[in-house]
Amino acid sequence: MTHWRGVLDEMVRERRSALVAYACLFVVDRRDAEDLVHEAIVRTFSRPRAVTEIHAAEGYVRQAIRTVFLDQTRSRRTWLGRAHLFEPAPSAPGAEDAASATADVGAALRVLSPRERACVVLRYFDDLPVSEIAAALLISEGAVKRYLSDGTGKLRTTLQVVEPDGPDEFESVRVSDLGRNAR
């Protein structure tokens, strides 16, 4: 067995669950994430690579996960633009569905557009700077900043905890402290 195959086998055995968890940040659904990881592994190792360590192989696969996700998003967008030619558009989900969504990160990520989701995941999960995100997604730094701003704004709105009806005890202390300092 060639060395890259051994690295591939070891990476799949040891890091598969971490790769699926990473892909879940992009697609949210676990089955879709597993498909995404599978496609990324196939794309990465469809030809022999000079990869000698598991961490380098995982880096290649993570890059491929991002690329496959963006490729699928573009294809889906193209298809949706032409789908009306083949069948009637499905009805839009009702307000009841939106109101019953739970306020967790998975649901919040579904609210984001694919570009916003990719930028948010790369910035806050992979801790990449704006310049590297722009290079990875082949967009300008200004576009990355805009997607991050829009995405984090949507996440704040979606993940916002409902305040209790009465004033917060810390808030009332701060207000009273301000009153004392003014005297």
Structure description:
The protein is mostly helical. The protein has 2 domains: 1-84; 100-162, Arc Repressor Mutant, subunit A (Orthogonal Bundle). The protein has 9 helices and no strands. The chain has helices spanning 3-27, 30-45, 54-83, 95-99, 105-111, 114-124, 130-137, 141-159, 169-182. 21% of the residues are buried. Residues 97-103 and 166-183 have low confidence and may be disordered.
Which residues sit in consecutive blocks of at least 5 with pLDDT less than 50?
A: 97-103, 166-183
Output the helix-strand order: HHHHHHHHH
| Number of E-state strands | 0
Largest sheet: none
Produce the secondary structure layout.
Layout lengths: L2 H25 L2 H16 L8 H30 L11 H5 L5 H7 L2 H11 L5 H8 L3 H19 L9 H14 L1
Helix pairs in contact: 1-2, 1-3, 2-3, 5-8, 6-8, 7-8
